[in-house]
Amino acid sequence: MATKKITVTIPEELLDEIRAEAAERGLSAYVAEALRFKRDRDRLRELVDWLQEEHGPVTEDERAAAFEDLEDLDAEHERRRAAGRPEAGEAA
Fold first, then answer.
1. 87 and 81 in contact (C-beta within 8 Å)?
2. Is the separation of the CB atoms in 52 and 58 below 8 Å?
3. pTM
4. Burial track 73-83 (b if 16+ CB lie within 10 A, e otherwise)
5. Spatial contact of 54 and 67, defined as CB atoms under 8 Å apart
């Protein structure tokens, strides 16, 4: 995958925390993963907004079920990372 170097500015305390957390993977990999995660969540939020416009508000039961599904998905991604296996959509 092609990469591009950029410059960003973040609070120093946050950078210290991220560096400690990202030690093995490296800062760039950590930040790229965080940005993918944020992008995916933003896309999901856009989909939910569109679905609510088309079909009405989401009920509390539907919301709770969706959050359970997201927790399950996050746990699966973590298991895959821990096992060193690529996640869905990543090259093996």
1. yes
2. yes
3. 0.59
4. eeeeeeeeeee
5. no
Report domain extents, the chain: 12-83
Task: Read off the pLDDT of residues 11-27 as tens digits, 9 standing for 90 and up.
Answer: 999 999 999 989 888 99
9-65 pLDDT, tens digit each: 999 999 999 999 898 889 999 999 999 999 999 999 999 899 999 999 989 998 899
Report the alpha-carbon distance of residue 28 to residue 19 in Å, rounded: 10
- In Å, what is the CA distance from 26 to each residue of 17, 63, 65? 13, 35, 34
Distances (CA, A) of 19 to 24, 26, 32, 34, 80: 9, 8, 13, 13, 22
**9 neighbors 16 (Cβ within 8 angstroms):** no
Would you state the structure tokens that stand for residue 73, as one six-digit string?
A: 């998905």
